[in-house]
What does this fold into?
Amino acid sequence: MLLERIYDEDLAQASYFIGCQAKGEAIVVDPRRDLDVYLDLAEKHAMRIIAVTETHIHADYLSGTRELAERTSAQMHVSNEGGPDWTYGADFDDAVRMRHGHSIQLGNITVEAVHTPGHTPEHLSFLVTDGAQSSEPGFMLTGDFVFVGDLGRPDLLDEAAGFIDTRFQGARDLFASLRDRFLTLPDYVQVLPAHGSGSACGKALGAIPASTVGYERNFSWWGEYLRNDDEQGFVDELLSGQPDAHAYFARMKLENKVGPALLGDAPELVEYTREDLAAALADDSAILVDTRHHGEVHAGTVERSLNIPGTAKAASYGAWVYDPRVEQRPLVLLAGSRAEAEEIRDHLVRVGIDTVRGYVASLDGLELTRPRVVRPEELDGFEQAFLLDVRNRTEYAAGHLPGAAQLSGGRVLWHLDALPEPGAGTIVAYCQSGVRGSVTASALRRAGYDVAELDGSYAAWSAIPGNEPVAA
It folds into this structure.
């Protein structure tokens, strides 16, 4: 058996390629939309991808299940659990609708669906048995059910999808799934989750890629609650201290349910000349994405550009500042090469931003503006309308500037009603070190707000003797 973990550091997301070497057949679980990594694996190992599936209707990235099925003619398999509110849409009419116990066969390999509700009602995990070695499963792909050291949060449907108080039933379902589906497995079964450290799908995910049932049983935070059959204690602890859910999760959840748009072959990116870009910016027919570090952006950037710094977190930050449901202007990336631009584009399509049309290698010769920056020692005398902390609410609770309001960067554009009206004064934005603050500030400037960034952000302000953070 071949089992490969494909990990996206940007979204802290794992997909899996499982193949039977004897028969040359493979399945992909929880794929992303840029497919080359799966196609390359299939070619490398002389395998055909004959099946593709996913553990649940994802909220943090746009699924590549339909894309991969279209490209390879693989059979789609999706959950048919959770009731009518969680049934996949008509774009999945060609899919096999799986219930608990459904098996997918790849030569000697069996992939069995296990209904594990809690994170979402339709959630499936997959038990994998390598029949050439054993008649019993040795692996469980747990999706957003069990992570290394943590569990999938059951409050996302409330936080991001507009549901009301589903978190409580979700938490109880998760308790039952652990008791009845997970802890009944042998300790040696390997746990392969869909997310790692940095994901907003849990509050304390480990950085180790895999675990075992036995390790989680004995050393996870939730093990004691299960041993004592303390459901209410489990619910209370699970729901406390969860991080902010990014607002774009609602869009992902809806598009993944009805069926993400198919990309097909990506068109070649256009390299813009300085004159072409200047003209497009002048008539507002394109948006420049400044991909530099915020320190360079502060030295001069194109007015109303968006700051998405680098490739590493392009999907995460891109989804904070650009909503393709309301903004259709094409994106032009500041990138040193076509290859760099294509890599950034690949990250953006993972969150449904499909409008990258070109790139420009330099801003030389373009009219630039310097974003407003205020030094921490100047803040007391700076006239402002609003002090905005764009960190996570757990960071804010641990310590923030006096008088600051909290609205995380991934939620700001969707909650403008929490800010003063444009023109009502200057908003001073800060995060921990300046990266998230610059990303958020660029989006607010494009939306018409007067925004200054706190130089060095919270880290610089709190390092000044005499400055006393407020703990919530």
Observations:
- The chain has a mean pLDDT of 95.
- The first strand starts at residue 2 and ends at 8.
